[in-house]
Amino acid sequence: MVKKSQCTVTDGETVVRTYADMVYKLAFAQVRNRADADDIFQEVFLRYVRKNPSFETEEHQKAWLIRVTVNCAKKHQSSAWRRKTVPLDGELTFLQPEDIGLAELVSKLPEKYRSVIHLYYYEGYSSDEIGRILKTRPSTVRTQLVRARRMLGELLEGEQI
Question: Which long-range contacts does 105-112 make (Cβ < 8 Å, 24+ apart)?
Answer without folding.
Answer: 105/152, 105/155, 105/156, 105/159, 106/29, 106/152, 107/29, 107/32, 108/155, 109/148, 109/151, 109/152, 111/30, 111/73, 111/74, 111/77, 112/144
